[in-house]
Each structure stands twice: as C-alpha cells, then as structure tokens.
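Hypothesis: this fold can be encoded by more than one sequence.
Test: take the structure tokens below, design a sequence, compare later.
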C-alpha cells in the first residue's frame, strides 16, 4: 500500500520527483494497479519531469490491464495534443467508437474529438462542441472554444453568451498559495480538459475575451 502520508507531503511540497519515486516503488509491488499507473502517467507530465514518452508508457500498461480504459484514452489524447502535435486519425477513431452511459464522459470525448480538426474544418469542430455542450452544460472549455469561434466569425453576441457561460462554470480558481494534487487524473482533467479548475491568469484571460467585445 502506497504511503499516503509521504505522498501527501510530497504533493504539499510540490516535490514531483519524490511523488514519482513513491508511486514507482508501489508499482513494483502492485504492477496491475490501474490507479497507480494513471497517477504516474499524470505525474510524468509535471515540471521538472515533462517526460511524455514515459507517460505514454504508463498508459500502455493501463491498456494491457484494461484495453478499453477511458481515462487512459483521455490521457493519451492529452499527451499527443499538448506535447506531440495533436491527435491523429487513429486516436480520433478510438474516440469515435466510445460508447458510455455517462453524459459527462461523452461530453469530454466529443470535446477532445474537436481537437482533431483544429482550424481546418470549422463545421465539424462546431458540431462536436455543440454536442459536447448538449451532453453536459457544466464545463468550461467547450463553451470557451465555441465562444471564441463565434467571436472570430463576428457572431459577437452569441460568442459572448458562451464565454459568459464558461466563466460562470468555473468551480475553482488557483492562486499562488493553492496546492492541488498533481498526481490526480481527475484534477488534471478538471484543469487541462474540461477547464472547471483554472489559474487566476487563465480566468483573467477568459474575462478579457468577454470584456474586449
């Protein structure tokens, strides 16, 4: 069993290297623990590690245990989107084949699928963002992205409504004294995917978008 007190202390002290060490030690004992592999995958993306190759290796271990693990797929997409130039056709196909009873999960999947098109297919991007919002109206990133598109298309009123909704959906704003669990995949998703947890700077960025139009 992982030493929770030691891990909590490492998180509190922002000691990413110690957290990595503790999780790896436990995985030597419990190598089929999906939660630990996901924790390590997320931790490997933190400064000073930023080892996306090792993060992907952790994801592969999850797939060996559970080939249909949605958390692993979400993390794989994030690694490719944020570190390796974007999700490709193969990942898009995997996303497109997901069927889950949770509307919240499917909202995330549709939002991630919108990454695939970038700026070269606004019709499909908008369609996926609208699907994401229709499935769950409590996230931030899908509203913000669609709002930005509308503003760019000179649909200012509609765009601002979406940006306002994004701002209202923010649940937590980090300040300089905030301590979040950088090993927690749900925290990672909250910040980097659905956007309900944001830094004060990111909140100001969204507010500026709303106020400048």
């Amino acid at each position: 069993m992982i030493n929770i007190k030691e891990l909590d202390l490492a998180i509190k002290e922002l000691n990413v290297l110690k957290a990595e060490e503790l999780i790896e030690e436990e995985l030597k004992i419990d190598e089929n623990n999906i939660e630990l592999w996901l924790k390590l995958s997320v931790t490997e993306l933190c400064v000073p590690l930023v080892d996306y190759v090792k993060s992907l290796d952790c994801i592969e271990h999850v797939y060996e245990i559970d080939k249909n693990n949605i958390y692993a797929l979400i993390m794989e997409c994030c690694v490719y989107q944020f570190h390796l130039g974007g999700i490709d056709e193969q990942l898009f196909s995997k996303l497109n084949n997901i069927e889950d009873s949770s509307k919240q999960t499917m909202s995330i999947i549709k939002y991630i699928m919108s990454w695939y098109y970038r700026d070269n297919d606004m019709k499909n991007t908008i369609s996926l963002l609208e699907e994401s919002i229709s499935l769950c109206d409590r996230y931030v990133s899908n509203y913000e992205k669609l709002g930005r598109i509308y503003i760019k298309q000179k649909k200012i009123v509609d765009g601002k409504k979406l940006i306002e909704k994004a701002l209202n959906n923010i649940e937590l704003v980090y300040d300089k004294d905030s301590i979040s669990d950088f090993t927690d995949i749900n925290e990672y998703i909250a910040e980097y995917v659905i956007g309900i947890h944001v830094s004060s700077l990111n909140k100001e960025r969204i507010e500026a978008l709303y106020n400048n139009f």
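The radius of gyration is 18 Å. The chain has a mean pLDDT of 96.
Hypothesis status: open.
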